[in-house]
Specification:
The structure is a single chain. The chain has a domain at 24-108: Jelly Rolls, CATH 2.60.120. The two termini are 27 Å apart. With 130 residues, it is mainly beta. Helices cover 3% and strands 42% of the residues. A 6-stranded antiparallel β-sheet has the order 1-2-3-10-5-8, with no helix packed on it. Strands 4-9-6-7 form a 4-stranded antiparallel β-sheet, with no helix packed on it. It binds (2~{S})-4-acetamido-2-azanyl-butanoic acid (9YT). (2~{S})-4-acetamido-2-azanyl-butanoic acid (9YT) binds at residues 21, 23, 25, 38, 40, 50, 59, 95, 103, 105.
Length: 130
C-alpha cells in the first residue's frame, strides 16, 4: 500500500512549478499503478494551451472556477467544483482559471516525474522522458 500526504509532498521534490500552475505528483510511473495522480493548482488569470498527444488525462475540479475550451470545436465548458473533464481524444484545449483552481488529475500512461509542457503543450512519451 502507498500512503502519501499532499501537505508533505508539496514541500518536497514531487512539486513542480511552471508558468500559471504548480502540480504535486502524488503517484508517478515508478509506483507501477499504470497511471499518475496529481493535485494541480491553476492560478487565477492563467490561460494554458495544452495538447497531451502522448497521454490520456482526466481532471476533476476540487475548488475554484474557470473554463476549458475545446480547440477542435470552439466549445467552452464551465469548470467549477464537481466538474470532471476527460481528454479521451487527446483533445487540444485551453484551460482558463477565473479564480485559483485546485484540480485532481490522472494521466495514462503515467508521467515519470518532472515533466513540464513542451512548446506544443505536450509532455513527452514516457520512453522519451529524462
Ligand atoms: C489541470 C491540468 O491540466 N493538469 C495537468 C497536469 C499538471 N499540469 C501536471 O501535473 O503537470
Amino acid at each position: 500500500m502507498i500512503v502519501r500526504d499532499l501537505n508533505e509532498a508539496k514541500a518536497g521534490d514531487r512539486r513542480v512549478d511552471s508558468e500559471g500552475w504548480n502540480s504535486v505528483r502524488l503517484l508517478l510511473k515508478d509506483d507501477k499503478m499504470g497511471f499518475s495522480f496529481h493535485i494541480t493548482t491553476i492560478y487565477a488569470g492563467a490561460e494554458l494551451e495544452m495538447h497531451y498527444k502522448n497521454h490520456l488525462e482526466s481532471v476533476y475540479c476540487v475548488s475554484g472556477t474557470g473554463s476549458i475550451e475545446d480547440l477542435a470545436t470552439g466549445e467552452v465548458h464551465a469548470i467549477r467544483p464537481g466538474v470532471m473533464y476527460a481528454l479521451d481524444q487527446h483533445d487540444k484545449h485551453i484551460l482558463r482559471g477565473e479564480t485559483e483552481m485546485v484540480m485532481a488529475c490522472v494521466f495514462n500512461p503515467p508521467v515519470t516525474g518532472r515533466e513540464v509542457h513542451d512548446e506544443t503543450g505536450a509532455y513527452p512519451a514516457a520512453d522519451e522522458a529524462a
